[in-house]
Design goal:
Length: 215
Amino acid sequence: MPDLYYVPGSPPCRAVLLTAKALNLNLNLKLVDLHGGEQLKPEYLKLNPQHTVPTLVDDGLSIWESRAIITYLVNKYGKGSPLYPEDPKARALVDQRLYFDIGTLYQRFSDFFYPQLFGGAPADPSKLAKIEEALKYLDTFLEGQKYAAGPNLTVADLSLIASVSSFEVTDIDFKKYPNVKRWYETVKSTAPGYQEANEKGLEAFKHLVDSLMKK
């Protein structure tokens, strides 16, 4: 059973939990106390020098970055699964959506919201505009598509919904984009174990936001 070092509220951690559920794969969950600095201890740094979560340890392999983890899990434990299709063109589209998530959508969310959450910075309208632009891109990708990368649920959807659902703790109205709204409801209702894998962590994220933003 692979070990997953994680925190429940983290969107990237939730993407890994969603993928494990979709694969019917049990993970040995190891909670990391970020506030207590557990991620900076020598034993954790040996696993992940970047001291980030999530970190997966499986059969001697230590790997971090959630999108790398989720594709690895399907490659090892879900060979042939539509979650990460083997056809080169279909896989390329899934990869593009994953890179869009980490490099554009979630990155812009992080740039906008985390300085407010952790540093008490005021909201930056220019950074909010960049998120709106990213949501327009996603809305375009989803035009005429049931899921983010075609007709089947893939790890691209699981990564993206972990990111997009996190917008719910902010004033960002992603549901004004009709294709995004439709896709969001579709994935919520069809991703295996969605409530346990994502909703519970999202509630933890909301509690963190409430506690920090009220200071």
